[in-house]
Design a protein that fits this description.
12 strands; alpha/beta; 15 helices
Length: about 425
């Protein structure tokens, strides 16, 4: 579950949790009381969040920050790379500041088509479709492939965007225990219609990778398809960062679809669905977050395309991100902390409680280190964590400095 999800997740496939009851009966008429009572329930919800220690705030970052950043998803350090920013600027100058419309009206440019062809080629799939965000890509893929009479088997640790896609899909959804191919196989038993297993490739909470080969085998035994969200794998795993499906030998298979974001390793903005050409054509005609959304801005497409070319030229960035993650894990574990072993670039450090996790992250920030903080209800197991993201452009000195700060500020240190 994403760290910014503001409400507890509903049971997968079930209705969303109800809103809090209004703070007072809603009056009728045109008096001031009637107007203020309409959103009275928001005050109740706000107070509940405050008492639970779950208030979230926006912190606009300056152009230049003195903080060492281990919180962003800029895994390859490309968001500010001069070639990437220049590629974004040139695309905006040539194609305009915005896409001007939906992809099916005026929002598709030659730049979008080139980006899609290059992403498909790099990741090893037949075709690709670019959308305005990774979130939109997941909603598009899950809802378009989970139709009436179908079955979706969703991993219990999936990201909020996949969960929301399951909620919106017309297929029936079953939640399988985390990273359990046998449970997926059992969930598919007895279903004779279209079926789709949905999983993160690398889970955003603990940074563990899904057993994709075993999941594919379970799906194929039942004629089901496999949908993989590779948001945290593209640019980090696979040969030269080609992604988790490529590393598992599944890229380009007729029964495998992948989604990814352009806002993490590629340092830009947007999302992509990769798969067989007939699946992509189906999404163009049926996926509502594609059909009714404005196309990706040219600057984002140009930046992502430049970043992809840079990754082709410098494939060692992928292995470097993994090396930094491994070093963080080894040093923090040696310092006595409980750390999940990373399979990609996400490093998860357990905290004793939600309150201590928040305090720990704040103390790190005061000491010059920016880290992520995951706490209920954003974590499916209820365990609070600091979430660190390794970056290929971190120096050995910066990595050691980050470890020292985390150990020094740890609860009970």
């Amino acid at each position: 579950m994403h760290q910014d999800d503001p409400v507890p997740p509903a049971p997968r496939g079930g209705p969303p949790p109800p809103y809090d009851a209004p703070a007072e009966p809603v009056a009728t008429g045109r008096d001031t009381g009637a107007r203020t009572a309409a959103f009275g329930w928001i005050d109740t919800a706000r107070e509940q969040r405050r008492r639970a220690g779950l208030v979230r705030t926006l912190r606009p970052r300056p152009v230049e920050s003195p903080l060492l950043d281990l919180a962003s998803n800029d895994y390859l350090g490309l968001a500010r790379h001069p070639e990437v920013t220049r590629g974004a600027a040139q695309a905006a100058h040539r194609w305009g500041a915005g896409a001007t419309g939906s992809r099916l009206v005026s929002g598709s440019t030659e730049l979008h088509a080139r980006l899609e062809a290059e992403l498909a080629d790099f990741c090893g799939f037949e075709a690709a479709l670019v959308l305005s965000s990774g979130y939109a890509a997941n909603l598009a893929a899950v809802t378009a492939l989970g139709g009436h009479g179908g079955l979706i088997v969703s991993d219990a640790g999936n990201h909020a965007s996949l969960i929301d896609g399951c909620r919106l899909a017309k297929a029936r959804t079953v939640v399988a225990p985390h990273a359990d191919p046998d449970a997926v196989r059992k969930s598919l038993d007895g279903h004779d219609g279209p079926a789709l297993a949905v999983t993160d490739a690398v889970f955003s909470v603990d940074g563990d990778a899904a057993p994709l080969r075993s999941l594919a085998d379970a799906c194929r035994a039942h004629g089901a398809a496999l949908l993989v969200d590779d948001a945290h794998g593209l640019g980090v795993l696979g040969d030269g960062g080609r992604g988790t499906p490529h590393a598992a030998g599944l890229a380009g298979d007729a029964d495998v679809v992948a989604t990814a974001t352009l806002s993490k390793s590629l340092g830009s903005q947007g999302g992509v669905v990769l798969g067989p050409a007939r699946v992509i054509e189906h999404l163009v005609n049926t996926a509502r977050t594609f059909i009714f959304d404005t196309g990706l801005a040219p600057a984002a497409a140009g930046g992502a395309r430049t970043a992809l070319r840079l990754l082709r030229r410098e494939p060692e960035r992928a292995s470097r991100a993994r090396e930094v993650a491994d070093e963080l894990y080894e040093r923090l574990t040696a310092g006595g902390l409980t750390v999940a072993r990373p399979d990609a670039a996400v490093v998860s450090v357990r905290a004793p409680s939600p309150e201590q996790a928040v305090r720990w992250a704040a103390d790190c920030r005061d000491a010059g280190l920016l880290v992520g903080c995951f706490r209920p209800p954003s974590v499916p197991d209820g365990i609070s964590r600091l979430r660190l993201t390794a970056r290929a452009d971190l120096t050995a000195r910066q990595t050691r400095e980050a470890v020292r700060t985390i150990l020094r500020t740890a609860p009970g240190a």
